[in-house]
Structures are given as C-alpha cells and as structure tokens.
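Dear colleagues,

As part of the handover before I leave the project, I'm documenting each prediction I ran so the next person doesn't have to rerun anything. This entry is a single chain, and its sequence is reproduced below.
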Amino acid sequence: MSVAAQLVVKVIDGDTYKIMLGEQVQHVRLQNVDAPELKQFFGETSKNVVQALIEGHSVAVQVTGIDLYGRLMASIKIEEMRLDSLLVARGLAWVYKKNCNEKILFSCEALARSEAVGLWKCKRNIPP
C-alpha cells in the first residue's frame, strides 16, 4: 500500500511514529533501521532529531507489512529523501541487518562509523 503526504502526529522514538493514514492514526515502524531506545546512548538525541524533521509534517509512506507488535512497517520519505538513509548516515540508527538488503544503507553505516558520527561516538554502543 502506498500513501503520499501523510501527517506525522507524534514521534515515539527514532524509528517509531504515529502517522495519520486515511482517517486513522496508526503506529508505524520505519523499516530497515533500528534506532537506540530512549534510555540508550544517543536514544533521546535520535528521537529529538527525528521529531524536528518529521513531527507535524507530511511524509510519503509506503506500508510494507506488519511487525510482531502489530505496527505497520513502512518506508518513509521526506521531500523525496529516504528517512532510513538519513538516520543511518547521521548516526541516529543502525541498519537492521536481519531484514535489510539495501547496500546503500550498509555504506552509509560504514561511513558514519568510520567518522564516529552520532551513536558511533561511543565505541561500545549496542543495538537494542
């Protein structure tokens, strides 16, 4: 299901949002990435940056499935830019290696890691 220009009502954390889809607010989980939990190193920063980028704004949403917690899994774009790539490149999230086969994301993560950007400032960070 592909839907364009949907309003982001709330950013819960770096990779989970409440988005108005049609007439309903839905919990949406960004696919391909895993952002730090709020209590982890860089978790609050990740949330705050994503909040500034998308909360209260319209985004393009392409729903790709449902996760184990009943949230919609989706690819999200802001002004034609993929949100997953942006988060990984800025060190705001890890690539979710279990379900991702996007080479560009792995390249973004390698570059962020080599430049110690964002969560990569801590050498012992652990994905959630």
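Residues 2-121 form a domain with the OB fold (Dihydrolipoamide Acetyltransferase, E2P) fold (CATH 2.40.50.90). The chain has one domain: 2-121.

All the best with the project,
I.
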